[in-house]
Amino acid sequence: MKLDTVALALVVIFAVLWLATLVTGLLAAIPFGVVGLIPVAIVLALLVEIIRQRRANKEDDYYSKNVDK
Known about the structure:
Layout: H1 3-28, H2 33-56, H3 58-66
Helix pairs in contact: 1-2
């Protein structure tokens, strides 16, 4: 396994743990913590949309595979 793959996996694991801690802390502060879930939901929705668009873009795939680095 490449080092960049391991590093990316560690970053993803850390981000998921951080997000779970954030949501748990916000829910513990009910009713005011629920307001904090709105920005978290917006950021997650943007992230999902960015990843979806990147995976569906054939032009980006072509250039990432065929252009010399």
